[in-house]
């Protein structure tokens, strides 16, 4: 009986799975919906285990596999790892383990930053795990060895954003504490965490001469290309009503913060256990 239902659903539509450690991946979801407004989307925020940036590679790989398995149970045809930490530490293993198209967010940020920089000096900010992995630096250097990369972990950014604090004196102080050392060096700054776009306005106001690179938009375009190349686009969802949200903890808080990310209400979030 269950198998029959799954097969019927699979035949009817294509769907996209997106996951992040929390609400940050909604910045990627928002851009994906702009370029793929009619595709069904399943979003999972692993809010019980946020933030990933302080955890070991082994844990992040394990969590990412658990989430991928859950999304595949929903019959998704492609998966976006909308988390820089999971992209940096788990993406390659996910690709080796699972057969569906899986993309991350690092490549998109690298491509955009290489295009925007004029002085060949690029800053990267992210979680400790992302920065320590040196994934961005490696990818940038592989494409242009002349680029100077300045990296900085910003461990207070995610907790502040998860509490819904994105503007004001406190945020200004936290941002300046991390980024003041960049202001005379770089001309492009990669937001190497999907939470950070919510601080983009503050960062731009404090450092107007630095180009802010948000990988979310390029990631959405990359996904569209992959779906097109693999003949996976169905365009059969009802626009604006085909997103299902899952969390591992804190449904009401996710709805509250998620509404801020998306500029629209989230009516229902399902609590799951991985």
Write a concise synopsis of the structure shown.
With 274 residues, the protein is an alpha/beta fold.
Please describe what this structure looks like.
This protein is α/β, with parallel strands linked by helices and 274 residues long. It folds into 2 domains: 2-104 and 217-271, Rossmann fold, CATH 3.40.50.1860; 106-215, Rossmann fold (3-Layer(aba) Sandwich), CATH 3.40.50. The chain contains 12 helices and 10 strands. It has helices at residues 2-12, 26-35, 57-73, 84-97, 106-116, 128-133, 135-143, 157-162, 169-179, 200-206, 215-229, 251-262; strands at residues 15-20, 40-45, 78-81, 102-103, 121-126, 148-153, 188-191, 211-213, 243-247, 269-271. The strands form 2 sheets. A 6-stranded parallel sheet has the order 4-3-1-2-9-10, sandwiched between helices. α12 links the parallel β9 (243-247) and β10 (269-271). The longest helix has 17 residues, at 57-73. The radius of gyration is 18 Å and the shape is globular.
Tell me the layout of helices and strands.
Layout: H1 2-12, E1 15-20, H2 26-35, E2 40-45, H3 57-73, E3 78-81, H4 84-97, E4 102-103, H5 106-116, E5 121-126, H6 128-133, H7 135-143, E6 148-153, H8 157-162, H9 169-179, E7 188-191, H10 200-206, E8 211-213, H11 215-229, E9 243-247, H12 251-262, E10 269-271
Parallel strand pairs: 1-2, 1-3, 2-9, 3-4, 5-6, 5-7, 7-8, 9-10
């Amino acid at each position: 009986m269950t198998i029959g239902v799954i097969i019927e659903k699979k035949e009817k539509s294509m769907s996209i799975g997106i996951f992040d450690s929390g609400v940050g991946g909604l910045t990627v979801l928002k851009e994906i919906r702009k370029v793929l407004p009619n595709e069904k989307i399943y979003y999972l925020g692993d809010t019980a285990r946020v933030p990933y940036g302080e955890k070991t590679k082994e844990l992040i790989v394990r969590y990412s596999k658990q989430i991928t398995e859950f999304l595949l149970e929903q019959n998704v045809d492609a998966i976006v790892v909308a988390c820089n930490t999971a992209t940096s530490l788990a993406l390659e293993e996910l690709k080796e383990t699972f057969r569906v198209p899986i993309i991350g967010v690092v490549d998109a940020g690298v491509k955009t930053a290489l295009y925007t920089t004029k002085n060949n000096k690029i800053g990267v900010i992210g979680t400790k795990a992302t920065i320590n992995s040196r994934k961005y630096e490696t990818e940038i250097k592989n494409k242009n060895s002349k680029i100077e990369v300045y990296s900085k972990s910003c461990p207070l950014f995610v907790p502040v954003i998860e509490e819904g604090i994105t503007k004001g004196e406190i945020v200004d102080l936290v941002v300046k504490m991390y980024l003041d050392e960049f202001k005379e060096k770089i001309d492009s700054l990669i937001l190497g965490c999907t939470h950070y776009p919510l601080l983009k306005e503050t960062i731009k106001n404090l450092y107007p001469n630095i180009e802010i690179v948000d990988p979310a938009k390029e990631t959405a375009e990359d996904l569209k290309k992959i779906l097109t190349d693999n003949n996976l686009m169905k365009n059969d969802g009802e626009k604006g009503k085909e997103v299902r949200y899952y969390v591992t903890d804190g449904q009401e808080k996710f709805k509250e913060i998620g509404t801020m990310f998306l500029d629209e209400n989230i009516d229902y979030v399902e609590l799951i256990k991985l």
